[in-house]
Design brief:
alpha+beta; 5 helices; 8 strands; globular
């Protein structure tokens, strides 16, 4: 019995190591795929500028956009790695305040695209990693503005099932069998790390909702996905 128990323990350990190895390979493949195109475009743009005698400001603006895209990709890959490793820095986060900041950041993009961006909801506090949650929300908003349709509504609130953050647009959403992009994958991994969930509701309207679990408001400690002692304001 002892030998059998030891063998089973080794078998479980081997299975865990194989899963970790598979996740590592998938992460490296994803990083390589996502970074290859913008890095190549950035390099070509720099080479073209170096070949010119005068500074082309329009070309510099395009390179700035590429640099911003690379920065976002790096932040997404870092968030994916941190969430997967459960490297969390929990604090009390007001979802409505987080949504308000995202609203201000993305309003210029919405205006440039001729899209309406609306903020709705009320203050509600949860225990979460603010930086990871901000990255997940950025991804949902960017997807809605770049790939969705009509007005985009950003909501934060609380209902019978608990606290939530939601991004809604008037399009149908991604096809059911479509492979999730990096943005949605990061949002889903962040939700998992925080003890929350990412729910995608096909449209129109299409909704992407980060749902936080209900927990005792009097709990003395902050646990991932739980409502903090601050409760809803």
């Amino acid at each position: 019995d002892e030998v059998a128990g030891l063998a089973q323990a080794f078998a479980r350990l081997l299975a865990t190591l194989k899963e970790e190895r598979a996740r590592e390979q998938a992460f490296l493949a994803l990083a390589s795929h996502e970074l290859k195109t913008p890095i190549a475009a950035f390099r070509v743009g720099l080479e073209n500028l170096l070949a010119q005698e005068r500074v082309d400001r329009e070309a510099l603006k395009r390179l700035k956009v590429q640099a911003e895209r690379l920065e976002a990709l790096a932040e997404n890959l870092l968030a994916l790695s941190r969430a997967g490793a459960q490297d969390l820095r929990l604090s009390e986060v007001d979802l409505y305040a987080l949504a308000s900041e995202a609203f201000d950041r993305f309003q210029p993009l919405a205006v440039s695209l001729g899209r309406e961006l609306v903020l709705e909801g009320a203050p509600v506090k949860v225990a979460a990693d603010a930086r990871l949650l901000e990255r997940a929300l950025n991804n949902l908003l960017q997807n809605a503005l770049l790939h969705g349709q009509g007005a985009v509504r950003l909501r934060a609130g609380r209902d019978a099932e608990g606290a939530y953050l939601e991004v809604e647009d008037q399009g149908p959403g991604p096809p059911a069998r479509a492979r999730e992009g990096l943005g949605l994958r990061v949002a889903r991994q962040v939700a998992l790390a925080l003890g929350a969930s990412l729910v995608l509701v096909p449209g129109p309207p299409f909704r992407a909702r980060l749902r936080f679990s209900v927990d005792s408001a009097s709990s003395p400690r902050l646990s991932p996905g739980a409502t903090s002692s601050g409760g809803a304001a």
